[in-house]
Hints:
There is one protein chain. It is built from nine helices and twelve strands. It is an alpha/beta fold and 294 residues long. It folds into two domains: 4-142, Rossmann fold (3-Layer(aba) Sandwich); 153-289, 3-Layer(aba) Sandwich (Rossmann fold), CATH 3.40.50.620. Strands 5-2-1-6-7-12-11-8-9-10 form a ten-stranded mixed sheet, sandwiched between helices. A two-stranded antiparallel ribbon has the order 3-4. Helix 5 (161-177) links the parallel strand 8 (153-156) and strand 9. Helix 3 (95-102) packs parallel to helix 4 (125-134) and helix 7 packs parallel to helix 9. The relative contact order is 0.14.
Amino acid sequence: MTGRIVVGIDGSPQSGNALDWAVARARLGGEDLELLHAYTFSPPVDFFGYHGAAAGEQVTWLMEFSEEVLAAAAAHVREVAPELTCTWTSKLGPPAAVLAEASEGAEAVVVGRRGLGGAASVLMGSVSNRLTVESKCPVVVVGDGAPPTSGPIVVGVDDSPFGTNALRYALAEAGVRKTRVRAVVAYDLTNRAMQGDPELVDRARAGVEAEAEGTITRALAEVQGTDPASVDVDGVAVEGTAAEAILLHAEYAQLIVVGTHGKGFVRRALLGSVSRQILDAADRPVAIVDLPDR
């Protein structure tokens, strides 16, 4: 059965980058593309003599814009990848909710980091929280510039199910892309009690590094169904925060993969701090992966 990649389209340059990323990915994996534009309108306004556009006028204009921007996106797909099956849908509703609904059964939802209006972002603030909470598949966020097509896939791994599932996704993507995975584990040695004893710090560092490397070994053992033997994996233990460690090794990555680190509705409603920092700072596409059994 052919998979499906959903792409959020809003006419912004970054949604164009997201589309190019999705096209390149679909050409590798053979998935169908579903282009999706969601639009909302404001109620009529009568404010001290100012009369806003009537709802009907707004809807007509928004529907026309939606169809035109989707037609342009579909034409782009036909031009660069005529072999791909591409459908498009224009829908009234909040973008995050519409994308989340379309994510059911999809391989990924792909969006730009910012939408029309510059400050607006598909994956910032309340929209990001809702999409991360409600999406039934990984969410890939693409920023400025042409998405990279070479380099390793860098994934943050820890001793949680979220880190293990992020590794599983990274291995699967690396298999499709014919590249390697760099699994990054962070550790921290900020215990003030040790700072006056360099020998103790060195011993502690060696022990913590070994434990961090063991984290990668255990995670790999858990994802044997992904056939990690077919993908080269470099395990890296880095002293510092998780976000700093991942970004340090992602300079030449073609994709960064992180877990949501949310458990239950309330925690997932607040995007994990590591995921948030990576999204804010990364100049690479970022895949946010939750648990598969939500």
